[in-house]
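User: Is it possible to get a 3D structure for a protein together with its bound compound? The compound here is pyridoxal-5'-phosphate. I've pasted both below.
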Amino acid sequence: MEPIPLTKAPLDTTDKDAVLAALDNPRMEGGGTYSIEAEKLLEKLIGSPCAMLTNSGTAALDMAMILANVTSGDEVILPSYTFSSTATSVVLRGATPVFVDIDQHTYNICPDAAEAAITDKTKAIIVVHYAGVACDMERFLDLGRRFNLMIVEDAAHAIGASWHNHKLGSLGTLAAFSFHATKNISAGEAGALMVNDERLIERAEVILEKGTSRRQLIRGKISKYRWVDMGSSFLPSELTAALLLSRLNRLDEINQSRLAVWNYYAGHPKIQSLLKSGLIEMQTHSPESSHNAHLFCLLLPTADIRDRLTQKLKSMNISAYHHYLPLHDSPAGQKFGRASGSLRNTQNISDRLIRLPLYSELRNDQVDFILEAVHDFLVGEGTGA
Ligand SMILES: Cc1ncc(COP(=O)(O)O)c(C=O)c1O
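Assistant: Yes, that's possible. Here is the predicted structure of the complex:
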């Protein structure tokens, strides 16, 4: 069997054509026609009043924390089980990330733990829709209203997923998408900030454009643009935007093909038998939400079994990986942040979770091969079951 990577971008001839056409365009810098078209498409796909392309999901989170007016002395609540970027956006503002636990079934930030962590310094809560599975947005939007906190969605994994018929990324005041190479829609390195409160759009444009009023000039509202606020260089180039646009145009097709692979995995007799025997657990989501097949992950009995299975799969040319190491007890997490409450589920999921290969072109016979190996290991040598 040929090597099976963890993930693979869905390359199409239309992608190549789009990038070549963009190369012929004399305008390469961000904010051109490809960027504008991709932003309009994102607004339509997500149901948001404003999308701004950024050069990464990290950059979109950085912008979000500036727009939320997070500053020194403030606290922002976020899950410990996430990527460093969720926390660095807070730390770059001189504020303190407060790490809370995740739910043991959904692997998403636990609303009770978040509520218990609120202090008079709390400015915002960043919810992370892990694997494109929606957080309990009813609870978080309610917390936002009751405690006057901004709810920001880290929707890095979640393009196309939804909650109660609302697309993820349209629910928080602000939301960040990632179009990194590992994501369902990839442009190598790119992201987007969704500005769902129209009152923040004008300032977001300034922050996006290196702190200047350049967008006002483009609209013909002023004759010279100048430095008016803080900001940075957050725009992706037109080449990136062209690739992104080409793939966003196929969002539904890409997500549907990933879902077909995901459903084949989940309904597979080997998975069903491992679930029945209690040797694995799977992430759950509420019936009101629909995920986007961003990850196919399993929870194994112990960290040791997970690590040995990973090695075994590697020896068979199958790429499988653990995921986040908890942020709260990482070197930077201890230096810049603090933990609130028990982080038991975070540690448990981090120790035991394995991600199996998932991408549009993964064939059923490859999934059969992967699951045969997983099943044999867990039933035989791995657990002594
Ligand atoms: C939950 C989460 N947030 C943010 C990011 C950062 O996105 P990017 O790599 O586009 O900067 C990632 C990246 O994988 C992520 O997993």
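The two ends are 27 Å apart (CA to CA). The domain at 13-248 is CATH 3.40.640.10 (Aspartate Aminotransferase; domain 2).
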